[in-house]
């Protein structure tokens, strides 16, 4: 006998058996409902892009260490998408003239990164991407994107104590680095990436990384001070940190006005890993003591389409991964118990006249909108009841010779065991009453 | 200015802009409704599988010339899935003991093959896969799978003249090749693959391919005769072609009994490209004179799980690609005109009090289930009406100072231009009447 292949799924990815898939479909449907209630339209694109699409703006860590790239049979270097934003930039650039602005797009693509699989981190995950592109008023778009992130959380049953949206502004950080720490612009990206790690690494590691960037003690102090400031600092240091300060203050004020002051909180250490952010940045954090981590985030990135077009495209958006989000829902007891959808099982004795009858009956019921599974052959009736039971199908239909003679059918309710016989022509109405549909 | 990257999507794949995506989502939702009405449950899995999963059973043409394979960063040879069936076999094998049989699974994965893009053929396509696994009665499973294929066609509005389901049986062909042509078993797969091409290549090419297999004139004649036989042949040659003949006759009889004799037709040249079929095979053909081609097909493959498990798993299923199917729907005028979903556009003048008002109003309406898009800032009102018009949003709301003072709001119907003012507290009921929802 030949050696058998492993039935394990490829490392870091997942098999979605029906119960897993029901959950995924439930989650994606709810996400779509919320996004569409804001007027966002769903898009998708190719799984594969030329590698150049990612070289411009995706972080070096991803491109050098994590991207799934290869040479195709036509000798083109290509990659499986590690993120969706460059594709969105490509698509919007390709139709910039025709599209009615602002463009509100969302997508839920699967993304691939070669990571060491761990809690909340897999190689394949699905990610909601929501973007407002080419808005007339960036402020209103920023407001809407953050409101959307909050509504998304609420729509899954999270309450205002379950999460916080920490918010900052790249412009403020850049001004602090340039005008207070007096660092040259070519160091800002590196320092920003280090700050982005502050919640994930120890204080010592953090300090070492900063020292490697040759920050002196005074600069270190200034930076640590800044990272622990609140909105007062921004108000008082206004002239050193420029117009991004007043922008953020106005945004925080408006968050209060539209009822989000309980969840939206200023936090200067919010940076976001990607280099392409240019303005407001935010991260949604779980507040549960076992899971104080970032669930997802986003912000404003106004230059991303620049790789594809000379026209300017302003943009704000966020990306939310399914793995991290599912863990959040699980921890907060917000996952539903989703049952198999089948309502009716038609049992049978396996002779040919009956095969004809049960196939025809199934067709008739399906046309009326019922979800009907057929017995798959001549097992003992007891075994068929066991099958219906194992599949948690609530109703079993059975037409023995006695019923057949008088054009009737037996209905058995699996939970109570209750049985009744109804005339065939009354079957649909009897089923609607039983199934409450 | 740096050279810009192309906005073209990777060759042979597609961008799905909102209008394309609406169509795709509509199609997939309808497919899901039909599949679920038969009790099929949706599954999915990893996009990437170890290459071994495909080496066993996928056709050599695909593995050698069309598969997207590469070495991952962990030095494993992997492939982007070119078909879903091996993954289904892997998944069912992995949980064979726990699963309640029969297993009815469907999936709509994206699949990748390095093909020369052309009509109905792309490198990335989505494919419905439907399978009944481990049925107690293979005959009933075959019947159900073919009934499902027919119901799927009907559910999209196709009528019985728009398509035919051509059906045959691998066992009959194997018996003809072995017992009538007296060919050794190791030639059967090659000859079958040639027969599978009969509709796609010229008669001369077809004959040349057969001659390359060293068929003599008498064998050629016998084969051509067989390929033009009807059910009578099977009835009369019964002993030479064995039990698969009576199986097919019984299946055709039952198709008649369940009302499918208009669409299900015996055709001996139906083979299917993959080597793994073991019994009934079928293809759904478009009957339109501009598109007489196979739309999709399937059949019985009882050995596929053999690569993963020693337990036997019988299986019947089919795969239907979205590209070919969309062309069918287009040609038969079965594609709907799907509009953008947004119902309400809230216009604004852009001052801060108003921003607060329109964000709050939008929230209130969304909570009531309305789909609401906000103006994105301080453009002239005329421009905002133009935006709503371009987006085909039927209703615009506007609250000027006059309305604000008396807690009222203006409703403008974009199609008729009709305007009215209603008290804010009556807004939802007015909108429900207007939008008929």
Layout of strands and helices, then pairs:
The structure is a homodimer.
Chain A: H1 18-37, E1 41-42, E2 48-50, H2 52-55, H3 60-66, E3 68-71, E4 77-80, H4 85-94, E5 103-107, E6 110-112, E7 124-133, H5 138-155, E8 163-169, H6 170-180, H7 188-196, H8 203-212, H9 217-227, H10 231-236, H11 238-241, H12 243-257, E9 264-266, E10 280-286, E11 294-300, E12 315-321, H13 322-331, E13 344-346, H14 352-367, E14 372-374, H15 381-390, E15 395-398, H16 401-405, E16 408-413, E17 419-423, H17 427-435
Helix pairs in contact in A: 1-5, 5-12
Structure description:
Two copies of one chain form a homodimer. Chain A is elongated. In chain A, strands 1, 5, 6, 7, 8, 9, 10, 11 and 12 form a nine-stranded mixed sheet that branches. Chain A has two domains: 18-331, BirA Bifunctional Protein, domain 2 (2-Layer Sandwich); 344-435, Rossmann fold (3-Layer(aba) Sandwich). In chain A, α1 (18-37) packs antiparallel against α5 (138-155) and α5 (138-155) packs across α12 (243-257). In chain A, a hairpin with a 5-residue loop joins β3 and β4 (77-80). With 437 residues, chain A is an alpha+beta fold. The model of chain A has no long low-confidence stretch (mean pLDDT 92). Chain A has helices spanning 18-37, 52-55, 60-66, 85-94, 138-155, 170-180, 188-196, 203-212, 217-227, 231-236, 238-241, 243-257, 322-331, 352-367, 381-390, 401-405, 427-435; strands at 41-42, 48-50, 68-71, 77-80, 103-107, 110-112, 124-133, 163-169, 264-266, 280-286, 294-300, 315-321, 344-346, 372-374, 395-398, 408-413, 419-423. Chains A and B meet through α1, β1, β2, β3 and α4 of A and α1, β1, β2, β3 and α4 of B.
